[in-house]
Backbone:
């Protein structure tokens, strides 16, 4: 039986959130998906996601998550009590293509302190889970854990270890493995968009692109990664992947990185670093202000963009550069002549300069998409579904549309929620065998993002009536009580290593500690998810560093985050259904599709550690979840209930899941059965929204110097965090057509730090003398003002990387015919990314759902309800095991010869199970291989599991081969000596690798298997 509620958590690099849908609502209306409204930032901004920040106290006890963590940490920094706290921000990117990822992997917090990544991720997920449960309980007070299916979204381009890491982090916070589904963000967004109506004459038509047989590319543009998949709608309405998930780290954070670098080019990296260290509050406020600002930047922007500059940054500049005037620095910088002015606390950038901030990110995305469209399986895809938070950026949307004018680019109205809501739909439609046999009353999805995390859930009865009736929690944090649907991916532990809080609460607590100078021994993790991104040698014991460099076991951090989200979601659901049991809930934990298998296992084990049963946990790939979600979303046409036309059968579209950390890209084709088939392997990179933040931080460092930023970050933690949060909010307002100057409030402590480190220097003179910022940036008092052009330039790196990667993808034969781009993820909500994608792919339809940032989360819920929605995937690697075969001197090198019991064997032979680029059918084992014991007394058969980028690797030692983990078969009965073996069935078509085995001597006996990617 299906779950009563599907709760999806979209854990984004920059922003996270959750959504949920009750089964009865889903059945009536799949799109009846509830999301939380988060409050934070100046002006009481209400958003559907919250910042992916986690705060731990000095004892590594979780304190808060999201905006709450940002606020708390900022307050701590104001009182200079944040030093021992652990503040993690946009940590999801650590899971993107991270090598050596283990359960014990450590990540560094905002100040370089290390903590276990698992603990940070678990705390973030746990917070979102608990918040989601609390929200659900408002609707159904008697809901039990067993009634909920959780969906946790991940980029499709994430490695398997990263996905496992997310799953384990979720399990650590009480999301039972059998109730958790990991949804690929592009797939979730694709599923979501398939349910979206277009306004036509009929009432119930869906997106035309999603008709049976249609193929489309889903571009899930998040803050960190661009996650792209290509789907084909099957006859039964499910989606078949036509190309392996792909993408890169070209998400919205690339714009942030460029903005920071722009600031650094003005005042100098030393000033930026000192400002970051000594004026944490103002620094965070500056980042939050930019986060809001960048979302308003659009291609048609003509007015100057104004940024508020904290006064402390000017002071830091003066301290680092005695005698210099910031205004003179800007004026003397030829790069910014007539482009940027800095007056008082205002940096004003001309529109052209502001929009260039998106160039790099958009270019990377578009170039990658072009490469995809050259692939034989993708070239006939005529639609692009643009989802994800970054997909909401007019800059990315325009870039994609401009680059692919001959293709239909679809951007759902709620592109940033496409993955989140698609995860909910995915949660209602789980694909695994165990999920099919579940009796889940509730699907609960946790989207553990790099920057923001959240959860969503959907009750089975709601899902059956209305699949989009997905509930997501509303988080409150930040100045002005900003309400968003995701909270910051931040985990806080106290000095004793006890979990204190997650999300905004962790940020707030850590900030308060910093204000009182009591944070030094606390552990604060933010944006720690990225440690799982393609991490090599990921182990259960992997350590991560917190905000100040203190180390903690990553498993502990991730589990705490997942546990918090799990408990929060559970509390929310119980408000609606008080008697819901754990066995009634299917948990869906989203992970990037580009994550490695070890990362997936790490996430799974982290989730299991917090009470999420293995058989109730589903790992959802973020792009897939977004794709599912977008399949349910309407577009604005003549009728009210039709869904995206891009999801018609046979349509192909690219899902770009742009999160805060990673850009997860997959390409889907809609099958005749309405399932989605991946037509190109998951891909992407760490180009999410945090790159924009990084650009902004570099820009500040360029102005005042890195030494000033470092000192400001260390000595004024509260102000530093406030500056980042202000920028995070600000950057969301940046649009490509922005012409007005963007104003940032500058904390006074930053200027103080500048003056202390640069006695006699004047920050205004430093800015004025910097030719880069001439007529582009001004600094007066506590206000930094940037011209629109300079402001938008912060998005350039991220957008360029995303667009470039997308261009590369569209060159692939399987992708080049994709006509739609689905831009989802938190970063997909950035107008800059949207415009960049549209401009780069003007001939392709770029779709950005209205809630693109929630597409993965809600799509994960849908995925939990409908696991069969994805019918086919493309292998990202060649998978196999290392084994030994009889030695043949004519073909085997002597170096491979080994003699056992008098028999000459060839070692290190790569026994291929599936090949890179191979289309595999979901739910069916791809290969059967027989293996035997090597000695009469052997009680186990153990193999190394390997991956290769080559289709025909010969030996496991070949270049490009990587040991992924270990497969162990239990063979305890030695009575038959060497005449013992097992037939091994390996399934690579799911979001995780599944291995089963039977005894060759007794086919009825199931051989116990253990696959360990984290050993």
Residues:
């Amino acid at each position: 039986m299906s779950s009563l509620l599907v709760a999806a958590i979209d854990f984004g690099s920059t922003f996270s959130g959750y959504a949920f849908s009750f089964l009865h609502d889903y059945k009536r209306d799949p799109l009846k998906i509830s999301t939380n409204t988060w409050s934070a930032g100046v002006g009481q901004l209400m958003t559907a996601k919250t910042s992916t920040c986690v705060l731990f106290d000095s004892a590594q006890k979780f304190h808060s998550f999201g905006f709450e963590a940002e606020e708390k940490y900022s307050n701590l920094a104001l009182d200079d009590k944040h030093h021992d706290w652990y503040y993690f921000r946009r940590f999801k990117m650590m899971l993107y293509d991270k090598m050596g990822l283990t359960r014990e992997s450590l990540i560094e917090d905002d100040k370089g302190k290390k903590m276990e990544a698992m603990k940070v991720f678990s705390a973030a997920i746990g917070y979102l889970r608990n918040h989601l449960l609390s929200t659900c309980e408002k609707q159904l007070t008697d809901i039990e854990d067993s009634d909920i299916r959780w969906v946790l979204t991940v980029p499709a381009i994430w490695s398997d270890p990263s996905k496992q890491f997310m799953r384990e982090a979720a399990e650590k916070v009480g999301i039972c493995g059998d109730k958790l589904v990991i949804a690929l963000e592009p797939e979730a967004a694709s599923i979501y968009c398939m349910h979206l109506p277009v306004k036509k004459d009929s009432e119930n038509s869906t997106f035309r692109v999603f008709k049976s047989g249609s193929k489309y590319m889903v571009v899930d543009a998040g803050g960190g990664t661009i996650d792209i998949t290509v789907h084909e709608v099957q006859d039964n309405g499910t989606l078949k992947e036509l190309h392996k998930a792909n993408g890169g780290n070209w998400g919205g954070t690339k714009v942030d990185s460029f903005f920071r670098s722009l600031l650094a080019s003005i005042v100098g990296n030393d000033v930026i670093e000192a400002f970051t260290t000594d004026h944490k509050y103002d620094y965070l406020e500056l980042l939050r202000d930019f986060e809001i600002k960048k979302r308003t930047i659009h291609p048609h922007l003509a007015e100057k963009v104004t940024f508020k500059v904290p006064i402390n940054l000017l002071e830091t500049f003066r301290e680092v550069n005695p005698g210099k005037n910031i205004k003179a620095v800007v004026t003397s910088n030829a790069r910014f002549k007539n482009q940027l002015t800095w007056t008082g606390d205002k940096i004003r950038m001309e529109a052209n300069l502001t929009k260039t901030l998106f160039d790099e990110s958009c270019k990377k995305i578009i170039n990658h998409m072009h490469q995809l469209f050259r692939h034989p399986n993708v070239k006939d895809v005529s639609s692009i579904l643009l989802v994800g938070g970054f997909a909401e950026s007019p800059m990315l949307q325009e870039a994609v549309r401009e680059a692919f004018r001959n293709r239909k680019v679809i951007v759902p109205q709620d592109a940033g929620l496409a993955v989140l809501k698609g995860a909910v739909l995915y949660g209602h439609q789980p694909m695994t065998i165990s999920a099919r046999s579940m009796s889940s009353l509730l699907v609960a999805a946790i989207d553990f993002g790099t920057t923001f995390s959240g959860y969503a859930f959907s009750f089975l009865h709601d899902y059956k009536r209305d699949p989009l009736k997905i509930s997501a929690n509303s988080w409150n944090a930040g100045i002005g009580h900003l309400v968003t649907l995701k909270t910051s991916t931040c985990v806080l532990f106290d000095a004793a290593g006890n979990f204190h809080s997650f999300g905004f609460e962790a940020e707030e607590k850590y900030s308060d500690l910093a204000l009182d100078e009591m944070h030094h021994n606390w552990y604060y993790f933010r944006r720690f998810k990225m440690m799982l991104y393609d991490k090599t040698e990921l182990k259960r014991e992997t350590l991560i560093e917190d905000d100040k460099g203190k180390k903690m076991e990553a498993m502990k951090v991730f589990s705490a985050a997942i546990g918090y989200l799990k408990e929060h979601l559970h509390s929310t659901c119980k408000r609606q259904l008080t008697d819901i049991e754990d066995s009634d809930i299917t948990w869906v934990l989203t992970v990037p599709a580009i994550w490695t298998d070890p990362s997936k296992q790490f996430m799974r084990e982290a989730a299991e550690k917090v009470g999420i049963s293995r058989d109730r946990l589903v790992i959802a790939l973020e792009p897939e979840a977004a794709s599912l979600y977008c399949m349910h979303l309407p577009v604005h046409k003549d009728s009210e209930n039709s869904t995206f036309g891009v999801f018609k059968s046979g349509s192909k579209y690219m899902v770009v899941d742009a999160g805060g950390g990673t850009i997860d890209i997959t390409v889907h084709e809609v099958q005749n059965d309405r399932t989605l088939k991946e037509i190109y392997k998951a891909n992407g990179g760490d180009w999410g929204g945090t790159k924009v933040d990084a650009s902004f931080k570099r820009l500040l460092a360029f102005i005042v110097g890195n030494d000033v930023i470092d000192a400001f970050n260390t000595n004024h933690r509260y102000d530093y965090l406030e500056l980042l949060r202000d920028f995070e909010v600000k950057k969301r307002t940046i649009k490509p057509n922005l012409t007005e100057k963007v104003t940032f409030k500058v904390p006074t402590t930053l200027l103080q730090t500048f003056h202390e480190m640069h006695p006699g220097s004047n920050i205004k003179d430093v800015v004025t003398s910097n030719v880069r910022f001439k007529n582009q940036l001004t600094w007066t008092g506590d206000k930094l003002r940037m011209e629109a052009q300079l402001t938008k330039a912060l998005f350039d790196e991220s957008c360029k990387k995303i667009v470039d990667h997308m261009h590369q993808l569209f060159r692939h034969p399987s992708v080049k015919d994709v006509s739609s781009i689905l831009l989802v993820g938190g970063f997909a909500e950035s107008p800059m990314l949207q415009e960049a994608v549209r401009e780069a792919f003007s001939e392709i339809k770029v779709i950005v759902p209205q809630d693109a940032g929630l597409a993965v989360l809600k799509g994960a819920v849908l995925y939990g309800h409908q696991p069969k929605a994805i019918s086919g995937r493309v292998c990202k690697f060649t998978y196999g095991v290392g084994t030994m075969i009889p030695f043949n001197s004519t073909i085997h090198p002597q170096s491979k010869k080994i003699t056992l019991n008098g028999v000459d064997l060839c070692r290190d032979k790569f026994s291929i199970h599936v090949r890179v680029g191979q289309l595999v059918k979901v739910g069916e084992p791809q290969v059967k291989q027989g293996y035997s014991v090597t000695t009469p007394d052997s009680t186990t058969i153990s193999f190394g599991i390997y991956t290769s980028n080559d289709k025909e690797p010969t030996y496991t030692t070949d270049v490009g081969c990587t040991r992924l983990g270990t497969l162990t078969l239990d063979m305890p009965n030695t009575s038959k000596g060497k005449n013992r073996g097992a037939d091994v069935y390996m399934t690579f078509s799911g979001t995780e690798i599944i291995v089963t085995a039977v005894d060759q001597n007794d086919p009825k006996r199931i051989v116990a298997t253990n696959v360990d990617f984290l050993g």
Notes: Confidence is low (pLDDT under 50) at residues 198-207, 431-439, 635-643. The radius of gyration is 25 Å. The CA atoms of residues 447 and 775 lie 42 Å apart.
